Amino acid sequence: MKKARLWSLLEDGRVQCLVCERRCLIRPGAKGACGNYVNVGGELFHLGYGRLSALESRPIELKPLFHYWPNSTALTFSSYGCNFHCPWCQNYHLSFRMPDISQPVFSPEKLVELAVREGDEGLSASFNEPAVNFDFLVDVAEHASKRGLYFMLVTNGYFTEKALDALLRAGIDGWSISIKGCKGMQKPLGNIDFYVPFRNAKTIKERGGYVEIVYLVVTNTNDYEDCYRWIIEKHVTLLGVDTPLHINRYFPAYAWRKPPTPITKLLEIAEEAKKSGLRYVYVGNLHNPRYETTYCPKCGRPVIVRNNYRVVDWKLEKRDNEWKCKYCGYPVPIKGEYIPEKKWLGLM
Question: Are 138 and 167 in contact (CB under 8 A)?
Answer without folding.
Answer: yes
